[in-house]
Amino acid sequence: MDHRPLFVFIALTLAGCSELPRKDPAKSGPFFVPTNVTTLGRLPAEVRRVAILPAWGGKDIALTSYERIDQAISAELTRTGRFETVVVTREDLQRLAGTPAVNSADSLPVDLLQKLAKATGADAVLFSDITNYSPYPPLLFGYRTKLARLPDGQILWAADNVFDASVPTVANSARHTALKLGSDRGPGDLSHTILQNPARFAAFVAAETFATLPPR
Fold first, then answer.
1. Coil vs helix vs strand at 92
2. How much is the pTM?
């Protein structure tokens, strides 16, 4: 009796079992966790309205890139539902302080915080500094942000992290975000496209950062 067909079937079955489906790290991790975060503890109950300043990152970032970054930061902070937000445009800041953006690590223009409090009615202000940036894959976004009370300038919360898409945990987290939002549903998994889209990557960075805000 020829047992070769049975032998071939068993061999193919065993070979198939040896190649189990690999886990998708965008679903299982490991994921990137922002760690360079400082806070005084709970947010003061009276801090309800936040003025969002335009991002600062030097002259090497194109204005169109700044516009996308500003939109992402504003949208993601508003999405948290933690504050009422008011956007301070570059034109607004130019009129108030004589500059379209400010570096929170430098000396601030004279009376800026007092002027912001009066002009916006906000209880706090969000500073955003872009410390590293590459709009070309692998995308790179260093984000330093501070939430300061108005008008006295007390820092309530700050974060400073670098999101490098070439780092597997960062790529996993970005793709995980895309999958959660369902923006890449289709005939195949397109979640990797967030790693080629600077605007969507900036939104991911902002969302991950604002997730570290303290409770009230």
1. helix
2. 0.87
